[in-house]
Amino acid sequence: MIIGISKLNGKLEGFRAIGTNTRTNKFCVKMNSAKKETICKFCYSHATLEKGMYKDLEPFLQSNTEVLGNTILKEYVFRQGSTKTTKLNDAYFRFQQHGELINMTHFVNLMNIASDNPKTTFACWTKRKDILNKYRKENDIPENVIMVYSNPQINKILDEPPKGFDKVFNNVWKDHAVEKQNCTGQKCMDCLRCYDKDKENVIVEAVK
């Protein structure tokens, strides 16, 4: 099976990632359309796909959705453009720069990818505490995975990660808790707060 890899740019320049389609993820759709104001209502991925800004992006992400969410993979190949490989050589790698965990099958596949590539540090962003908690009842999170809880509530800073998570990523309005904002536009590769377990575990960013 083929797993598509994205080369990231902007503040995430230097990273690669595996993402999925927000528009076919029931959790994403529900959160994006909820009446309650959450960071999901400002989802760049959902808005980009909805507007059709990048015509090849949604089919690419949907392919990953189907590959990762339907079957626990025994064999797989990574593809970035025309390049294919069975192993990753990245120092740091991001899970879910687009999309959210679909189901347990998806999460198991991501954890297996991490186990198969022990020299790479993986950071996995999710709001799905239910999936993580269920997984942890029978499995250990690989040592090279950093679980980042993506706090859905704007301006409600969590001062410590929920149980099972290594870090928590909070979003606030630009004029709220300015003194606590520590994700302030620097390149992620120069910061690495989210990718190093020894660095602070509470991250606060202003909504863009």
Give a topology summary.
Layout: E1 2-4, E2 6-7, E3 16-18, H1 26-33, H2 44-50, H3 57-70, E4 77-80, E5 83-85, E6 92-95, H4 104-116, E7 121-126, H5 129-136, E8 145-154, E9 167-172, H6 188-191, E10 202-206
Parallel strand pairs: 1-4, 3-6, 6-7, 7-8, 8-9, 9-10
Antiparallel strand pairs: 2-3, 4-5
3D structure, described in words:
By secondary structure, the protein is an alpha/beta fold. It has helices spanning 26-33, 44-50, 57-70, 104-116, 129-136, 188-191; strands spanning 2-4, 6-7, 16-18, 77-80, 83-85, 92-95, 121-126, 145-154, 167-172, 202-206. It has one domain (2-206). The chain is globular, with a radius of gyration of 16 Å.
How many structural domains? 1
**First-residue to last-residue Cα separation:** 36 Å
Low-pLDDT segments, ≥5 res = none
The outline comes out as globular
Q: Estimate the strand proportion.
A: 15-25%
Give the helices and strands as they follow along the chain. EEEHHHEEEHEHEEHE
Strand line-up of the largest beta sheet: 2-3-6-7-8-9-10
Question: Over all CA atoms, what is the radius of gyration?
Answer: 16 Å
The total count of strands amounts to: 10
Helix content: 25-40%
Report the structural category.
alpha/beta
> Main sheet, how many strands, which sense, barrel?
7 strands, mixed
Mean pLDDT over all positions: 93
Number of helices: 6
